[in-house]
Design brief:
The complex is a heterodimer. Chain A has 22 helices and two strands. Chain A is an all-alpha fold. In chain A, strands 1-2 form a two-stranded antiparallel sheet. In chain A, helix 5 runs parallel beside helix 11, helix 8 packs across helix 17 and helix 11 packs across helix 19. The longest helix of chain A is centred in the N-terminal third of the chain and has 51 residues. Chain A is globular, with a radius of gyration of 24 Å. The model of chain A has no long low-confidence stretch (mean pLDDT 88). Chain B is mainly α. Chain B has a two-stranded antiparallel sheet with strand order 1-2. In chain B, helix 1 runs antiparallel to helix 3. The chains are: A mainly alpha, B mainly alpha. Chains A and B meet through helix 5, helix 10, helix 11 and helix 13 of A and helix 1, strand 2 and helix 3 of B.
């Protein structure tokens, strides 16, 4: 069957599945809308969390980034998984015991302050909205590349699908679609990886293949890769640092703390029945995530080697441009791959030196998107990658939209402006908030602000510097009071925003950066994307200092802290 | 609170913190330790085709994280039972 027809069929079938689930799992109460009724099995929640967490960036971009960063790309691998250890030990079980619907709700009650709750809502909305733009773009791009429809139309279709299952089903609909989406995306990611590993090393496990010898030789794959890259003038793959060890340290720590502090991930743990389930569920979530995250570096190394081999040509003197393979031509059309015959010999020269290098554009996303074609896999595998990319983007978008809409309907409307509305009215309000959030996210996807590219990193920086410290201190310290928490959140947020803006421009507008992107002005050589860890440290220090000189929290709050530290006496998640 | 006594409550929290401390130390050691700070030194050893530091950064730390969470869940389950504060 033709590739395009096949892609339509597979993507269409996956969409029908999501809509079918939506109709089957309509939410009838706010409890179902916000926390899926609180009865989700820990393994099922783990799977849903994995899809919720793994976004278009994990599925499409990460392996490509690592392919070019080598060892330096480990910051993403460790950072985006290590955060779950923090989440499991420092946040999830206690917040589940607290037994309410949203993250700002906890902050509002623990710090006995509406102001604290509103500050938390603001932090949540900033990081979730910046994050959702990337997902909407991912949906549009996947459609335009694989189905050859316009970016705009692709985005509308994506919005329509999310609208159906998120507005109808709320958290309940999202949970069950996310489970289906996890299955689609993990299948789509691992199948090509297994094929490539078999081709190159003969091992069906990419994780082992990356550490094995190449088929028909005694040379290890990674040694070959190191050697070939050095010959071309690139850095050695397995030892190439990301700027410096200190920067890698800060980057990894920022991503870890940010991961643990992202509200759309935290609220997933409100859906399980018990505290012990929340702990186990975090383990399952990371296990499901680890399947992709340990496969990705194998894809990176193997795809990089394949790519270099292809550019080398059959005789090793450079690929003859006229004889380039079909996938090369396909991706040239999209502009993701660009060749310029600088020396006019009709052959591809691909080396590190930009003055000589003739592959002027190799978009990093190619590594995952074109991987099956480069490895000459059957068409249905290529079609599957399209469905997988869409599943990754849609599942994360839905989780983020739920976090945003519940913060608006539950925290702002019910919590602050209209405390007397009935449950039915709140449910209607949350559906309207969800619809508005989808329209807003779609608008930002259609008219991406200039700063869209830098924003996902910002989302992590903000979650790390504002939300995580406030939650952790709220659980592990009885002494932190509302003054300390509010001052800490604002200080962490402020320092991080200030650092990012001074190097990347205010609101990322070019020309407004006052210290420039110049590395020599970086604090200790730490890049702006890695600054969340410093912001978090500032938050902790300020929160402690301010709490020390102001009055201790009331005894009811100290009792609340005692209460959430112990599993016994858990209530089903409910409003009060 | 469901504890028999104030002392029990304190002991429970102390044991809990100790477990968290041990697991966090391992969490730190495999990722920031073996994966970053000691990676260059560890790279002189090998695990098949992997240099050891590189392996920790791209594989080993992730496996360890998964194990850490399941160990935490199991040990906490035991601790809850020991002090009579488990949910079931």
């Amino acid at each position: 069957m033709e590739l395009k027809t096949l892609t339509y069929l597979i993507v269409g079938a996956s969409f029908l599945l999501y809509i079918g689930i939506a109709i089957w799992s309509r939410a009838g109460s706010t409890q179902e809308f916000y926390v899926a009724g609180g009865g989700v099995h820990p393994v099922a929640n783990g799977m849903a969390t994995a899809a919720d967490w793994m976004s278009a960036a994990s599925f499409i971009s990460m392996a490509g980034l690592i392919a070019y960063m080598g060892y330096g790309g480990s910051v993403f691998l460790m950072g985006w998984t290590g955060g779950f250890v923090l989440l499991a030990m420092f946040l999830a079980p206690y917040l589940r015991k607290f037994g309410k619907f949203t993250v700002p709700e906890f902050i509002g009650e623990r710090y006995y302050s509406r102001t604290a709750r509103i500050v938390a809502v603001v932090c949540l909305i900033i990081c979730s909205v910046t994050y959702v733009i990337g997902q909407m773009k991912g949906v549009g791009v996947a459609f335009s590349r694989f189905l050859e429809v316009d970016y705009d139309i692709g985005l509308y279709v994506g919005m329509g699908i999310v609208f159906v299952y998120a507005v109808l089903g709320g958290m309940k609909g999202i949970t069950y679609t996310q489970i289906a989406q996890y299955c689609v995306l993990i299948f789509a990611f691992t199948i090509p990886a297994i094929f490539i590993s078999l081709n190159l090393t003969g091992s069906p496990f990419p994780q082992l293949g990356l550490g094995s010898t190449l088929v028909g030789s005694d040379t290890y794959l990674l040694d070959k890769l190191d050697l070939v890259l050095q010959d071309l003038g690139f850095a050695e793959y397995s030892t190439q640092d990301r700027l410096s060890k200190l920067n890698m340290f800060a980057y990894t720590l920022s991503l870890m703390i940010g991961t643990a502090g992202l509200p759309h991930v935290i609220i997933r743990f409100f859906t399980v029945p018990k505290v012990s389930d929340a702990r186990k569920s975090a383990g399952w979530a990371l296990l499901f995530i680890a399947i992709l995250y340990t496969t990705a570096p194998a894809v990176s190394g193997m795809a990089r080697l394949n790519l270099i081999d292809t550019f080398d040509g059959k005789d090793g003197a450079g690929l003859i441009y006229e004889e380039r393979p079909q996938w090369f031509k396909n991706w040239e059309k999209t502009g993701l791959l660009e060749f310029e015959d600088k020396n006019g010999d009709g052959r591809v020269t691909h080396v590190a030196d930009p003055a000589v290098d003739e592959m002027v554009t190799i978009d990093r996303d190619i590594i995952v998107l074109a991987n099956p074609e480069i490895a000459r896999l059957p068409n249905w595998v290529i079609a599957l990658v399209a469905a997988g990319g869409l599943a990754a983007a849609l599942s994360t978008a839905a989780g983020l939209l739920l976090a945003i809409s519940s913060a608006i309907s539950h925290d702002l409307l019910k919590g602050v402006f209209a405390p007397n509305i009935s449950e039915k009215q709140e449910l209607r309000a949350s559906r309207i908030a969800m619809a508005v959030a989808i329209a807003f996210a779609g608008y930002l996807g259609l008219n991406p602000p200039d700063f869209a590219a830098g924003t996902v990193a910002l989302a992590f920086g903000l979650a790390a510097s504002s939300i995580f410290p406030a939650l952790m201190l709220g659980i592990f310290s009885k002494r932190i009071n509302k003054e300390g928490a509010i001052a800490g959140m604002l200080a962490g947020l402020g320092v991080t925003l200030f650092y990012v803006f001074q190097h990347k421009g205010v609101m990322f507008i070019p020309g407004t950066e006052f210290l420039g992107g110049m590395n020599e002005n970086w604090f200790l050589g730490i890049e702006p994307n890695a600054f969340g860890a410093v912001g978090a440290a500032v938050n902790f220090v300020v929160a402690f200092a301010v709490s020390k000189v102001t009055a201790a929290p009331p005894s009811s709050v100290q009792e609340l802290v005692e209460h959430i530290r112990v599993p016994k006496g858990v209530d089903p998640a409910k409003a009060h | 609170m469901a504890f028999q006594s104030e002392q029990d409550a304190k002991a429970y929290w102390r044991e809990h913190l100790r477990l968290m401390f041990i697991l966090s130390a391992i969490w730190f050691a495999v990722s920031f330790g073996c994966g970053i700070l000691l990676a260059d030194w560890l790279n002189q050893f090998r695990l098949g085709g992997y240099k050891l530091g590189f392996w920790f950064a791209q594989q080993g730390s992730i496996y360890t994280f998964v194990i850490l969470i399941f160990v935490y869940a199991r040990q906490m389950g035991r601790l809850d039972k020991k002090y009579g504060v488990s949910e079931d």
